[in-house]
Amino acid sequence: MAWFIPRHLLSLGFSLLIVIPFALSKGRDAAVPMTLTHHGGRLLTGNLNIGILWYGPIPEAQKKAILSFIRSLDNNAPAAANQPRVSSWWSIVASYQSFTKTPPPGVPKIPVKVVNQVSDPNYSYGKILIKDFIKPLLPKATAGKPNTLALIIASKGVTVLEMCAGSCAQNGLIDNQPYVAVGDPEEECPECAWPFLPSHGKVGATLRPPSGNVGADVMVKLLAGGLAGAVTNPYGDGFYAIARADRVLEATSNCPDIFETSKVTVDPQSGGAFNAVGDDGTKFLLPAIWNPKTSSCWTPL
Fold first, then answer.
1. Backbone angles phi, psi at 74, to 5 degrees
2. Which residues 6+ apart lie within 8 Å of 227 measured at CB?
3. Is the pLDDT of residue 7 over 60?
4. Which of 117, 160, 181, 264 matches a 20 to 30 Å C-alpha distance to 143?
5. pTM for the whole thing?
6. What is residue 26's predicted lDDT score, i.e. its pLDDT?
7. Which burial class, exposed, middle or buried, applies to 262 when counting CB atoms under 10 A from its CB (0-12, 13-18, 19+)?
8. Could you read off the pLDDT of 104-129 as tens digits, one per residue?
9. Quick one: what percent of the chain has pLDDT higher than 90?
10. Looking at beta carbons, which pairs linking 3-7 to residues 24 or more positions away fall under 8 Å?
11. What percent of the chain has pLDDT over 70?
12. pLDDT of residue 60
């Protein structure tokens, strides 16, 4: 069930680059992550081709943020001093290959390229995307290109499979086609938009989004988790753990509501909170990811 909570953003006024304390949400997962183990299946390796279907009238600000994030994943251009790269976060995703039963030689890398984009602005399958409706969208996203990850990005007002029912973003497999599906949860599920919107059960400051657009930065956060899960557990037999009530935990869902060890950085000009810098200096707040090397949750800062 969705929580309908009055929304507001914490007004921030800063003249210097500062950091602010950041409390984590309560719960076992936030405190002690489970150990993700490899269950013998394939991971997505090598060049990662992505096909995107924009479902509904996606605002340009959201498209811009999402495409910038994707470009940032393997962009290793130097950043300003002490500013971690989005590519450092992505390198943790790629590192899972080294902890499989047959690890590749050397340091794994996953170059990313968007090979197709298509729009469905009129909601061809309605505003509730259950699995049966996601299925026909996948070949449209990939344009039939083999070895392509399908990415479904839904606009505000569209409920994506299991949104508000324990999963803010979806990654999985339909007819042997890996996919990721995310929506804009601002109205449907403010809990999925935390820490940019207040939410029942979340503890800590509500933060200003780094781009200034709540929907854009929430969708990047959800997309990051979906991509990490799709790469490390694309076929359901990769890296995961089983928690209470048979809930499957993957790379980022094993480390929920963590964005920084004890503090987040705030941009002195915009007041937006961020923990990674990407394409053209764009700032992002990315979710923590379980690091298989240290068996702990890792954040860029």
1. -120, 30
2. 73, 93, 149, 171, 180
3. no
4. 160
5. 0.88
6. 31
7. exposed
8. 999 999 999 999 999 999 999 999 99
9. 74
10. 3/189, 3/190, 3/191, 3/199, 3/200, 4/190, 5/190, 5/197, 5/198, 5/199, 5/200, 6/198, 7/186, 7/190, 7/197, 7/198
11. 88
12. 97
pLDDT digits (tens, 9 = 90+) for 68-104: 999 999 998 776 667 899 999 999 999 999 999 999 9
Model confidence band, residue 6 (pLDDT cutoffs 50, 70, 90): very low
Quote the tokens at residue 212. 């200034």
Q: Which two tokens stand for residue 255?
A: 């480390």
**β-bridge mates for residue 40, sequence order:** none
Q: How far apart are CA 152 and CA 136, in angstroms?
A: 11
pLDDT exceeds 90 at position 138: yes
